[in-house]
């Protein structure tokens, strides 16, 4: 059908409905494979000397870009950790106090325990504060570039302060 409409449009036979015919002039004919269409696409771009789409390597890293990546990463990490903890609670034998006793019997120093607390607290606090920042954006506030950077640095600072406070408990 697409091939028929393309042929009719090229011959000027469907000029009574020019808008519809124009839409079908670029349609791929039925029977072509995805590989043939990809080859046609790349050869057309090579003939027209079009550049490839930009890749992450050409972008200058910025605070909003890193904040976005970190927000997604902490979200995935936290949901994975919560899911793993829930599965472990269902599958492993014993009770929660038994595992606390096991951890305390390992005689891990306070420095390592503090680092573990910070490692747990920072992703949770960062994701929470950055989520509040996103909620602020959802109501249409804080989109000017200086505000985006200021709120980004505020989220990082609050996350570090909160994590240190939780680490010291």
TrEMBL record:
Q: Which PROSITE patterns match?
A: SDH_CYT_1, SDH_CYT_2
The record lists the membrane-crossing segments as 75-96, 102-127, 148-168
Pfam (any one): Sdh_cyt
- Report membrane topology: Multi-pass membrane protein
Q: Which UniProt keywords apply?
A: Heme, Iron, Membrane, Metal-binding, Transmembrane, Transmembrane helix
Show the InterPro entries listed in the entry. SQR/QFR_C/D (IPR034804), Succ_DH_cyt_bsu_CS (IPR018495), Succ_DH_cytb556 (IPR014314), SuccDH_FuR_B_TM-su (IPR000701)
Which processes are annotated in GO (biological process)? mitochondrial electron transport, succinate to ubiquinone; tricarboxylic acid cycle
Q: How does it assemble?
A: Component of complex II composed of four subunits: the flavoprotein (FP) SDHA, iron-sulfur protein (IP) SDHB, and a cytochrome b560 composed of SDHC and SDHD.
The protein's job, in short, is: Membrane-anchoring subunit of succinate dehydrogenase (SDH) that is involved in complex II of the mitochondrial electron transport chain and is responsible for transferring electrons from succinate to ubiquinone (coenzyme Q). SDH also oxidizes malate to the non-canonical enol form of oxaloacetate, enol-oxaloacetate. Enol-oxaloacetate, which is a potent inhibitor of the succinate dehydrogenase activity, is further isomerized into keto-oxaloacetate.
Q: What's the protein here called?
A: Succinate dehydrogenase cytochrome b560 subunit, mitochondrial
Q: What species is this protein from? A: Takifugu rubripes (Japanese pufferfish)
Name the gene that codes for it. Answer: sdhc
